[in-house]
Structures are given as structure tokens and as C-alpha cells.
Specification:
- The protein has 159 residues and is an all-alpha fold.
- The protein folds into 2 domains: 25-62; 64-159, Up-down Bundle (Substrate Binding Domain Of Dnak, Chain:A, Domain 2).
- Helix content is 74%, strand content 0%.
- The protein has helices spanning 3-21, 28-46, 49-52, 65-88, 93-122, 131-152.
Length: 159
């Protein structure tokens, strides 16, 4: 068998294997749908059902991703507020003062961290906020607010 024929046979075997294994079997649309499904499942674990279903799986979404993030940030802020109010009940004046300081410092951290990442990721001149910078900032606010809600509702805070 000639060298070229051996290469052709080997390439045919590799191509058949890749097709059978699913590497080449999926269309681009199927791959995109798979990515959206994975993102949806991750969102369900970390965020509300409303956020997970907020246009992420629909290519013809009616509202923007930023509107989805802003709405979910408000839901997470409500959880933070609720958890703070639960922690205040039965706390001493000293503990209440510490909690207030903690929340104030967290808010400063959140604002400065998200301003930094919005500018860092998107670049651009200072003082001019682009659309993608606003999206980056909204995503950061959501992530940090969700993390605060989770930390305040952690089981060691229950009693």
C-alpha cells in the first residue's frame, strides 16, 4: 500500500472515530444550545429561577442581559436585607454596631471592586462609561451581591 493510501485510510479511520464520538456530530446550533443549557443549569444553582430563565436560553430574547442582571441584583439585595434583619434580631448593641460597620465596608468594597473590573475588562478612557463597561459592572455587582447573600445566610449565622 502506498504512503498516500495509508494516510487516506488513517484519516478516514480518525474521521469516523471523531464522528462516532460526537466531536463532529453536532451542528454549531447544537453546540450553542448545549452551552446555553449548561449556563442555565449553573444559573439555577446560583441564582433565582427568574434569572435562570431570563432570556439566556432564547437567542431572540426580548430584554437585554443587563436588564436580567439588574433584576437579579435587586432580588439578591432583598436577600441580603432580609438576612441582615434576621441577624439583628437578638443581637447585642455591640454586635449590631459591628454588623453595620461590616455592611458599610462591604458596600464600599462592592462599589470599588466593580468600578475597577468594569474599567479593567472594558478599558476605555476614564470618565466615559461604555455599554460593555456598564455590562461588566452589572455582572460584577450581581456576583458580589450574590456572594454577600450567601455568606449572610450561611448556617453558622442561624443561631
Amino acid at each position: 500500500m502506498s504512503f498516500y493510501k495509508k494516510c487516506w485510510v488513517l484519516n478516514s479511520i480518525v474521521a469516523a472515530f471523531l464522528c462516532a464520538s460526537g466531536v463532529w456530530a453536532k451542528s454549531p446550533r447544537e453546540k450553542i444550545d448545549e452551552i446555553y443549557k449548561k449556563q442555565y443549569e449553573e444559573n439555577l444553582r446560583e441564582y433565582s429561577k427568574e434569572y435562570a430563565e431570563c432570556g439566556w436560553t432564547d437567542a431572540t430574547r426580548k430584554i437585554s442581559a443587563r436588564e436580567c442582571m439588574d433584576a437579579e441584583t435587586k432580588r439578591q439585595e432583598a436577600i441580603v436585607k432580609n438576612e441582615l434583619s434576621k441577624l439583628i434580631v437578638g443581637a447585642s448593641d455591640y454586635q449590631k454596631g459591628l454588623l453595620e460597620i461590616s455592611q458599610r465596608n462591604w458596600a464600599k468594597y462592592r462599589d470599588s471592586e466593580c468600578a475597577f473590573w468594569g474599567a479593567q475588562i472594558s478599558g476605555g478612557p476614564q470618565g466615559i462609561i461604555s455599554s460593555s463597561q456598564a455590562d461588566d459592572r452589572a455582572q460584577c455587582l450581581l456576583r458580589i451581591t450574590r456572594d454577600r447573600a450567601k455568606s449572610l445566610s450561611f448556617p453558622y449565622n442561624a443561631g
